[in-house]
Amino acid sequence: MFLHGNSRIDPTGQLVIAGVRASDLAERYGTPLIVYDEELIRGRMRAYRQPLEASGLAYAVAYASKAFSSIAVCRLAKEEGLWLDVVSAGELHTALAAGVDPARIVMHGNNKTEEELLYGLRAGLAYFVVDNFHELGLLHSLAAAQGREVDILLRVSPGVDAHTHEFITTGKQDSKFGFDLFSGQVEQAVALLKDHPALNLRGLHSHIGSQIFDVEGFRVAAERMAEMYARLRDEAGVTLSVLNLGGGLGIRYTREDMVAPIEAMVSGIVDTVRTSFSARGMETPMLMLEPGRSVVAEAGTTLYRVGSRKEIPGVRTYVAVDGGMTDNPRLALYGARYEASIANRMAEPDEETVSIAGKCCESGDMLIWDVPLPKARAGDLLAVYCTGAYNYSMASNYNRLARPAVVFVRDGAARLVLRRETLDDLVRLDVGD
Ligand code: LLP
């Protein structure tokens, strides 16, 4: 059985998540429901910090809240000593509403608006990760107008292909993100900073992609970054004290995905950074990492109620559930793969291979192609695993479906952290009569 963290099967064959029966959660909160194993999230946050703490380096682990942004998860990050990475005024607003210290927030984005930059400036964020020349000028003028100085990192596109799905790779050279490392743009930006006294350059940032299973991509990125730090030191007399290597560690969506423990990956990254910098006679900078998926994905399970069924003899059987691409667009967008079970009949053997369809008016609204299951009946509860990252955060109201509720469970107790949208919520933005 494919279970993560504190999920078990009870003697009656029911799925139990962190001590609470999935069927009880569905009864109490309705479906679709995203259930998070809170201890698993906390464990992943600690797994990032532990090897960095042990390394003796100055460090920060900033949870990439784009993976799942909510007040509750920001609070967990805060409690576990993590920083936060935000990419919009909305994510920043959520982090601040959770009481996260702005001095532990990093702001990203390839086209931050003036309003977003101002919000960040007023809040007093730790670092703005400046993505391009336009932002360099804009942020400087906004900061200067307020008589402030801000700490910045420059986002660099290091040209590393982390062997990942083309659509979710952000670090290759052909990318909309960051200053190109190979055409003198970084040097040019650094030179420009001499005329931008409100911006204090502290370091560079790179993010090489998603679902990364080995340290090699980080090793190449660290080498290229160290090379650039050395060049800036030698040619521009600039000393940088922070290195942000982004996020991207992979998780086990399916049983075929083989992942190294986070601790081992992070230790490997620490070693490779140390080696790259010491080889050039430089001190290892403060190391920042920005994990999103690997912190929350495996902790999330979506519970759906099974409804209709369509059997096409000799072709395929579709089993439809009460959610779909509105709460999980990842198959439609990336061809993502998931595992699932019937949560109320976990001990029964698989009897058929079916495909799980959503309820939206769109043929591409599929959750899983070809999953072996016991015979699914209307009213069964389907659990889809590893839906904790980029599901709720990418949810939509297509067909005016309500976004699901989200609960955190821990030690046999559940708490609602995001309520289900109501029909009235769905018309709350409509104006006029
Ligand atoms: N830092 C930066 C600058 C990023 O662009 C990202 C993700 C992260 C950190 C966090 O990466 P993670 O540890 O979660 O892999 N919607 C896609 C994923 C897009 C990732 C975008 N950037 C998906 O559903 O797979």
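^ LLP complex. The CA atoms of residues 234 and 354 lie 61 Å apart. The radius of gyration is 23 Å.
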